[in-house]
Every structure is written in C-alpha cells, then in structure tokens.
Cadherin-7
Amino acid sequence: MKLGKVEFCHFLQLVALFLCFSGMSQAELSRSRSKPYFQSGRPRTKRSWVWNQFFVLEEYMGSDPLYVGKLHSDVDKGDGSIKYILSGEGASSIFIIDENTGDIHATKRLDREEQAYYTLRAQALDRLTNKPVEPESEFVIKIQDINDNEPKFLDGPYTAGVPEMSPVGTSVVQVTATDADDPTYGNSARVVYSILQGQPYFSVEPKTGIIKTALPNMDREAKDQYLLVIQAKDMVGQNGGLSGTTSVTVTLTDVNDNPPRFPRRSYQYNVPESLPVASVVARIKAADADIGENAEMEYKIVDGDGLGIFKISVDKDTQEGIITIQKELDFEAKTSYTLRIEAANKDADPRFLSLGPFSDTTTVKIIVEDVDEPPVFSSPLYPMEVSEATQVGNIIGTVAAHDPDASNSPVRYSIDRNTDLERYFNIDANSGVITTAKSLDRETNAVHNITVLAMESQNPSQVGRGYVAITILDINDNAPEFAMDYETMVCENAQPGQVIQKISAVDKDEPSNGHQFYFSLTMDPTNNHNFSLKDNKVLILLIITMRRRKKEPLIFDEERDIRENIVRYDDEGGGEEDTEAFDMAALRNLNVIRDTKTRRDVTPEIQFLSRPTFKSIPDNVIFREFIWERLKEADVDPGAPPYDSLQTYAFEGNGSVAESLSSLDSISSNSDQNYDYLSDWGPRFKRLADMYGTGQESLYS
C-alpha cells in the first residue's frame, strides 16, 4: 500500500512515539541506587532520577496531548506522598506534568525548525511539607525532525552568460538550494539537482548544482537566450522527497565569428561639381552579424582613380563608411571617378580565421554633375602702373576672364564702385581695358586697389571677381616747402661768420635719386644785409652768417620779458622755487635750445640759439625736425655706439608749456568753433587769442 504525504507523517510520528516509550521503559528498568547522604540533620539517600533524554516528534497533528515521558524518584513509594513539579522552557505553556505520576505531555504542535530542544528542571516534593525530597535536576526535551521542509533557492531566479561557440562542459553558473530540515538526522536535508528545462543545450551536476554547456557551436546569431528550470530534491532524490525549483536565464555573449559583408557589389552616387571640400559624398555600410566591439569596422580606399580626390572614414556610432571630398571637383576636367573600398573588422578573433577572410570589398562610382560656374580671371591679381601726369582716357592695362563651363558664355566687365568711390577709372565692358576717368595725384593716393566684376552674358547672376592694384608713378609737380616757419634770435655780441640757424625744406614728390634742394636769399629790399646764406645742397642747410657786428643801444622793449635772458649766478640759487631772475617755463619747453653734447676730441664749430614759432606747420615736419635734432646729438655724442642703431622716442609734437587744459582744437583741425572771445580776456590770454583767433593780428593769419 502506497502512503501519501499525510499518512507518511503520521507513520513517522507513531515510530517516534514507540521509540520514546521504549526509552522510558528502558530508563525505568535501568534505575540504580546510590549511597545515602544527610541534609538538615536527618539521613537521606542521594536522589536517583530514572530517565534518559526525552524525544518528541515535531508537527504532531493529534487531538490529544502528546506523551513525552515520565519522571520518577526512588523516594516515591507510590503512596501519593510525593508530588512532581516542572519548570524551565515551555513549562506549563507547552509541557505539563502529572504531579502524582510524573507523566509529561506536550499540549502544542512543535516545530524543530523554530526550536530544536527545550531545557527544563524537575523536582520531587513532599506533599505534606512541600519540601524537596530530592535536589532539583535538569533535563532536555529534543524535538525529533521529520521531512517537512522542501529545498529552497534563496538566490534565485538566476541570470548568467556564456560566450557563444563555447566547447561542451563550459561552466555557466552554480545554483544552490537549502533545506531547513535537520542535516544530522536521516536524509531530510540531503539535496540533489536535476534539470527540468533547457536540455539538450545545458546540464547540471547533481551534487554541486553547477550548470554547464551540453552542446557545441551554440550560435548567438541563431539564438541568443535560453530559459532553464533547475530542481532541487531532498531525501537524496528518492520517492517521497520534497523538491523546489528555480529558473536560470542564460544569455550567449557575442564573439567575433562573423566577417563583414557589403550588401551590394557596387554603388553609384551623383554629386555637383560645386560641392565644397570636406563635404560628404556618400555613406556605405558593411553588414556584420556580430555586435559591440566585434562589429567595429575599418574602411579604406584600396584602388581607383580618385585616391587623391576622395577619402573615407568611419562613423563610430553607426559603423558607416563616410566618403568625403578632399579636392575641388571640376566637371570640365573629369566627369566620373571609380573607387574600390574595403571594409574589415577592427579586431579579428584568431580562433575563427579559418571561417574565411574577415573583410569585404565593393565598388563605388561617383558621377560629377555640371554646375553653372562664375567667370574665372586669368590671374588672381593684376598689378599695373600709371604716371600721375597721364591724360584722362589713357589705357592703364587689361584684365581677362572666361566662362569655365562647356557653354563658354561671353563675359562682360565692370568695376565695383565700392572700391573706386571717386570713379578714377573706367573699364570697357567687352574688352576688359582699364582707362583713367579723372586726373590722378600720387600725393593724394599712391596706390588704388579696385575690384573688377566679370558677369556671364547669359546668366548675370554668375559673377567672378578679379583684383587690380594700380600704382601711381610720381612726377615733379610740387614745389619745395620750408619745413617750418623760422623765428631766429641772435645775441648782439655775436661774431661775424657765426652760424645762427639751420633751415631745411621738404617736397611732397619722391624722386628716385632723392631730393636736391638749392637755397638763396631773395632780392626783397626788406632783407637785412647784415646776414648771408650758405647753400650746402643738402636736405638741411646751414644758413645766415653775420657779415659785421652792429652795436645797438641798450634799450628794453616794454613788451619784452627780461626774464627770458640767461643770467649767470656766482652762488647757489634757491632751486626751482627761485624764479625771480629767469622764466622756469623755458627749462621745460621742448622748443627752447637744448644743451647739446659735444665730443671732447672734436672742436665744436658752431653754436646757435633758435626758438621756432608756434605757427601751424605740418606734423610730419615737426617730427622730422625732432628726429634731425636727435641725429645731430648722436653724431657728436662720444658715448654713442659706432654703428647704426634704432632709437625710439615718445614725442607727441609741440604743445602748451602747461599742457592741454581744455578740448580746444588746434588750428590745423577742421573745427569750426570761434575763439575770438579770447581777445577780450586780457593780456594773459593774448597768446591763446593769437593762436586760435581769426583777427588780422593772429600769429597764424
């Protein structure tokens, strides 16, 4: 007769009860006596409890209390004078004792997995005196295990991965099931593993739970995931054992076992010839069944007539080959290109090279389409020269442009007037001949940079641009000018022949051999015959020598400031605060004579005292004079280096002694402000009135 689970449990309980009763009977039969001992003045024998360890079957399902065992003392004569009491774990709540007989019963269902044993204490008392007749003794009630727990996979469900194409027996993952039953008692906790789903691809070791591959050459590209069901059964897998299951999801990971392949043997693309350099012409892609790093590509042009015109690179996100232009396309020069392109895996797996080459090739044909292009000039820049004395309408030069398209449309020329605002030049619309339209002045503009436009007659929107640089050649059409207006001062005791002033001239023209100036005194009767001029024919001339000495009376002019004379002191002065005898401003004025350094080994030939006036003169003249004075100082400076050197001066030109106090514009500016009111402010503002006023007595009139 085959027992069910419930019937089997009842059977085990009956067996346990039988064992317990057998143990009690054996305990009672094996009782022994000991020597007596004395307590409280009267002789007593040492207690002799008769029991062994008690066992109770777990999961008792009966309606009556479960008998556990019996306590008995040798002192008990069976006359009812002894009573038994129970204390400790579960006393009264789980375990009860018959105080007359010592029988122990369990009143509740026990679970070994919750508590495997209980420790209790028993004592026999005199019923009349309620005093112990034996010392208290401790005993244990152990819960007897039955197979009432199935194995459980505490870490399930599982996920694992194994490379595709792995050999048979490759370890995938280990699963573990636990059983709460007593592993030291019977086979209730002895588990074996088996595979319920996943064959024939995988297997599991019965004792360890290690899952392994069971078939070779499993291909991820064919099937990349498998669901396994693993069972764990106790009682060593025998009939009647309890079992539990878990699922294992196994994913085949990719290996590089598939070469790249182009879906087509050839491709064709059309591109306009006007496509800019670095533009994308086409995208092609070789298919690869692998994924991730195993599908990474490398593309290259291995053959064809467009090796220098095109290049190919890889898009790392899409693994496409991107064909781009390296040089400009020209339909008139070449109408098509053919490229042989190879795609290969970046990292090939040597284990699978025997499957074939891990690369593939295809042909790409690129057709260049004609585009209407603007005219092209024969030269990027046309340099031309013309004299500033040329007549209006004279020819300067010619430009030429043509239509690069096959239609070769006629070209018409014009000048971009944004580059010739004054309209100095004209161009013949048909021939491209450039002529003068106005008189030219080199001193106004020495070089004209103009842009010439060339338009197709049939399509005026197609415009090409050429650049012309016209240099104006100089002629001698400007008279020399004095570098500045001179006001020379001379001491009354100056010696005849003494040089008192140098005069220079400038010329707006620029002759190729440099300027050659000639100086002479005019025959104007106002000239004083006490002075003469020496023409040195150089850029700067030494002029005005004393002919004879003339004594003048010592009469002071009221308007003349005596402090402008140089006074020699035999004692130390009061420093900068001593201004009684001389004008401090003279020491700070750039225009006052500087004490030039003289070379000790050369006798100075000339000494001069000059003070230029504050008249309006060109800025270039002021700076030229400033640099010339510095040059003279360097020529006579014994400490100057014996070679040419570059000197930098932070000179901004002439100005007020006290520097600028307002935003008054100079006389050379285009300011139209009226400063005549300065004359009404008194003698202190006379100088400003002379400099900026417009009256007849103005210094600059």
Q: What stands out?
A: The chain has a mean pLDDT of 78.
